[in-house]
Amino acid sequence: MRYLDSFEIVKLVEELCIEANIRLPEDVADGLVKAKEHEQSLYGQAVLDDLLQNVEIARKEKMPLCQDCGMTVVFVDWGQEVLLVGKSLQESVDEGVRRAYLGSYLRRSVVSDPLYDRKNTGDNTPAVVHLRFVEGSEVKITVVPKGMGSENASALAMLSPGEGEEGVIDFVKDVVARKGQNACPPLVVGVGIGGNFESAPILAKRALLRPIGCRSADERYARLEEKMLRHVNELGLGPGGYGGKVTVLDVLVEFMPTHIAGLPVAVNISCNATRHAGGRLKGREL
Ligand code: SF4
């Protein structure tokens, strides 16, 4: 058995929140560069120029990539040989988020009550934590600051199995066509297929963590990703929604087993600021 002091989680989450907000992952930045080479619309090219300049300024000046520094989503893969000592996981993650958002002047965007008071919690907590236990003695943490413009464009459908591949493609296309232009394209589209009502959206969000251009290991789903990428780009929304060839940088699919009577499909839209940062902690000898 090994242990991890909760303060190590606080420190790592703080670092990752700052890194994710100021440094666009290389694969997304490269995706924007390739989009610029491919895009023919003049407005689209101008948007991509601005976005690439924004990426550089954020990196150099250590400024947030976007004014919406997101609701903080944290994926934790916890090695089951590790014991957490000190505060709870949620408290530790929230403390890391609090320190990052207050200390680095990141915009705090979380309200305590969704319907009535809508009072800002003042420190961007609580974070949304997705925990799963894995083998080993390591803890892997990935922080995803997720803006609400792109969350608002996301959707879930409980398709019937007979709708098959065509139903999935139509749904993904429809979601992007209806709200994609409000989500700051070019987009990255995460698609979760299978599971049930609550697991498909988490799969879709996990899909956004895969590097752009990294195809599914399953050839059938890899082909589906390529097909959906083509279909969605044919919509012609273009960078910034001003028209053009590049509406999305990629479509990434994660899937899992489901019930005989169902075909859940979730589409989690992400924007040109598809941000995430990850790190690992090793459990210490008890
Ligand atoms: S959708 Fe993305 S780029 Fe647009 S405001 Fe929200 S976080 Fe920023």
UniProtKB/TrEMBL annotation:
One Pfam family hit: Fumerase
InterPro entries, per the entry: Class-I_Fumarase/Tartrate_DH (IPR051208), Fe-S_hydro-lyase_TtdA-typ_cat (IPR004646)
Domain Fe-S hydro-lyase tartrate dehydratase alpha-type catalytic: 11-278
Superkingdom field: Bacteria
Gene Ontology MF term list: 4 iron, 4 sulfur cluster binding; lyase activity; metal ion binding
The family this protein is said to belong to: Belongs to the class-I fumarase family.
Name of the protein described by the UniProt record: Hydrolyase, tartrate alpha subunit/fumarate domain protein, Fe-S type
